[in-house]
Amino acid sequence: MDYSSTKESPPAGAWWSRETVAVVTGANRGIGHALAARLAEHGLTVVLTARDGARGEAAAAPLRARGLAVAFRTLDVSDPTSVAEFAAWLRDHVGGLDILVNNAAVSFNEIDTNSVEHAETVLRTNFYGAKMLTEALLPLFRQSPATSRILNISSQLGLLNKVTDPSLKALLLDEDTLTESAIDAMVSRFLAQVKDGTWGGQGWPKVWTDYSVSKLALNAYSRLLARRLQAAGARVSVNCFCPGFTRTDMTKGWGKRTAEEVADVGARLALLPPAELPTGKFFKWCTPQLYSKL
């Protein structure tokens, strides 16, 4: 991709350049679209992705019309074939990436409801999809001295203080023994309880339970991945960011802040100077906290 004639350039002293590539999933609207725009405005090259090709291209076109370095590529994070095709395209046509923002997510609940009718779809997209895409793209990160970054858009609904089952809380708190297979088993257990109708009294989060469990799993996976990459000497940071109650289609327009306000903070986290960049952190709006300590 050649964006040498685009208008926006990185600010003086920035660690990134026009060649720095950020991938933002679920970016045809809402927080994802605002984040893609903000990163492009900072002078990066952005790959905007969405499940729907027509909607994704319609979201990318006005950004390109402003002179921003934005490409669109269809991606369904819940579909292994789509993920594999996207990874191959990114490798062959872009050459890799430096920043991954896992934003794609779904919820089927209204603000004041808590149905788990679509729990399998929610987990497949919000947790397994983000995990599958991350693992597929890990070999493609250009591990520059500035450190590559993964920023998972998460939620405080998935924090451990929302879990009341002592055994589940103990499992997730013990980070020295926690494994990815244990996280997968937790998700499978939840889905099995949804299927047999017993999930309600099992100590899971009380609000938007399926969505909350998906973020609980994503937070735990992010911590494990951060530790795994650190142990391997890989210069790739992994952090989670809870934007809080934001006015988007998912919240039917309810919320305390706009997607653009969230994008300001999210872009700042994604672009932290290398010397200030942590890993394995949960950012609750602006403040980094260890999710397991809340």
How would you portray this structure in words?
The protein has about 290 residues and is an alpha/beta fold. The chain is about 40% helix and about 15% strand. The chain has helices spanning about 30-40, 55-65, 80-95, 120-135, 165-175, 180-195, 210-230, 260-270; strands at about 20-25, 45-50, 70-75, 100, 150-155, 235-240, 245, 255-260, 280-285, 285-290. The strands form 2 sheets. The chain has an 8-stranded mixed β-sheet, with helices on both faces. Strands 7-8 form a two-stranded parallel ribbon. The protein is globular and about 55 Å long. The N and C termini lie far apart (about 45 Å). The mean pLDDT is about 90. InterPro entries: NAD(P)-bd_dom_sf, SDR_fam. Belongs to the short-chain dehydrogenases/reductases (SDR) family. This is (+)-neomenthol dehydrogenase. GO terms for molecular function: oxidoreductase activity. Keywords: NADP, Oxidoreductase.
> What would you report as the Rg, rounded to the nearest angstrom?
18 Å
Q: How many extended strands?
A: 10
Helices, by number, come to: 8
Largest sheet features: 8 strands, mixed
Based on the model shown, name its key terms.
eight-stranded mixed β-sheet, two-stranded parallel ribbon, 8 helices, 40% helix, alpha/beta, 294 residues, globular
Task: Please outline the helices and strands.
Blueprint: E1 21-24, H1 30-41, E2 45-50, H2 53-65, E3 70-74, H3 80-94, E4 99-102, H4 119-137, E5 148-153, H5 166-173, H6 180-196, H7 209-231, E6 236-242, E7 246-247, E8 257-258, H8 259-270, E9 281-284, E10 287-289
Parallel strand pairs: 1-2, 1-4, 2-3, 4-5, 5-6, 6-9, 7-8
Antiparallel strand pairs: 9-10
Helix pairs in contact: 1-8, 3-4, 4-7, 6-7
